[in-house]
Every structure is written in C-alpha cells, then in structure tokens.
Prior knowledge:
Radius of gyration: 18 Å
Shape: elongated
Number of helices: 3
Largest sheet: none
Helix content: over 70%
Strand content: under 5%
Distance between the termini: 58 Å
Amino acid sequence: MANTAQARKRVRQNEKARRHNASFRSMVRTYIKKVDAAIKEKDYDKATTAYNNAVPVIDRMADKGILHKNKAARHKSRLNSAILGLKNS
C-alpha cells in the first residue's frame, strides 16, 4: 500500500479515472455492437444509421485517449467495409 499522502492521493485519483474511462470504453463497445448486430441482420439502412452514430463516439474516445487512434481507425474501417459488403451483395 502507498506510504505517503501523495501516493495515497494518486491511488484515489487513478481509481476514479479508471472507473470513468471504463464507462467510456463500455459505451464505445455498445455502439460497435449495435453496428455489428445490424450487419448480422443484413439490414443496410439500419447498419448505416448505427455506423453514422458510432463514428463520432469512436473519434471522441480516440481524441480523449480512451482508445488508441489506430484502434479507432481500424474499428471504423472494418465496420465500414462490412457495411459496404452488405450494399454490394
């Protein structure tokens, strides 16, 4: 356990930040799952709408540092490719 007052405070701050960031990560995953669900239903319009709702959230979390920027780009790219696959088939 932390011995100094400064170290104890950092423990408290880190735990608070961890819980806060965990909720943001959970929110991003939920948006991604909504897009995936629409893709599995093969509903192009619903998937496009879900994707358009998810992109700003993913970008915002990348800007905040919750997600790495490359991971955010990878998610967007893969979701968009899957949606375009629906349109073409």
